[in-house]
Write a structure and sequence with these properties.
The protein is α+β, with helices and mostly antiparallel strands and 238 residues long. Helix content is 32%, strand content 31%. The protein is built from six helices and twelve strands. The chain is globular.
Length: 238
């Protein structure tokens, strides 16, 4: 069995956007490290001050891959609040890394990754993420989110506490043809949430707080495709 393992973290020095230079360094070293063990991994989402690294990985390598990702993030971080919130003991885990793991039947690891970022929207971001996860459970192959009411165990890394915000959702696909339908349902459904905005990958948190922004990425055979422009064209948005 293979999985999509997604790790989301704020490594920025501010609360609004990430550094392109830092992202490029992480991506370059990520490709180098993962090529050594034959794993496809990349930065799938860049949402406000958060990035998501997703990996297409076999069950026996999940811990190894997560550990490599965590070390790269720690090496290049400009801010350490999320990274240092991780603990080996669930009782001492604080606001830390967001993590989602879903089984995939596709030989290419076809999946959709949704990353959220908040600015004073912590009170309702989890509701939006759980809504997306539920869509995945009904129409995807497997679906998981980082939202939890108990500390989350992240294989190869440690525990993140329940106060962790900026959730990530992973929905795997049986067939890439399902992607348009599920992505459309997510976009349409989240329109019903007040102060939740769909943005292009790399967009800063330029909203009227309190609010939430999210990005949606297709992760196909190790490649990340931002779905913003595709959904924009399909729905004739400005």
């Amino acid at each position: 069995m293979k999985y999509i393992s997604s790790i989301s973290v704020d490594i920025s020095s501010n609360d609004v956007e990430t550094s392109e230079v830092v992202n490029e360094k992480i991506e370059r070293e990520l490709q180098l490290e993962m090529s050594k063990i034959g794993v496809k991994s990349t930065i799938t989402n860049v949402t406000g001050d958060d990035i998501v690294i997703s990996s297409f990985v076999s069950e026996d390598r999940i811990e190894e891959v997560n550990n490599i990702v965590f070390k790269l993030l720690y090496k290049h971080a400009e801010g350490f609040e999320d990274l240092e919130g991780v603990s080996n003991d669930p009782k001492t885990a604080g606001e830390g890394v967001s993590y989602a793991l879903s089984k995939t039947p596709s030989e290419y690891g076809d999946s959709i990754i949704i990353g959220f970022d908040t600015y004073c929207g912590e009170s309702f971001v989890n509701e939006a993420a759980l809504f997306v996860e539920e869509i995945g459970k009904k129409f995807g192959y497997d679906s998981s989110s980082s939202v939890s009411d108990v500390p989350t165990k992240i294989p190869g890394i440690g525990y993140s506490g329940v106060s962790t915000d900026d959730p990530v959702v992973v929905i795997t696909l049986e067939n890439v043809k399902d992607l348009q339908k599920i992505a459309g349902m997510i976009y349409g459904g989240l329109l019903g949430f007040e102060n939740v905005y769909f943005v292009k990958r790399g967009s800063p948190t330029n909203i009227l707080p309190p609010g939430v922004i999210y990005t949606m990425t297709a992760f196909l055979n190790g490649n990340a495709i931002d779905l913003y422009d595709g959904i924009k064209r399909k729905n004739n948005l400005l």
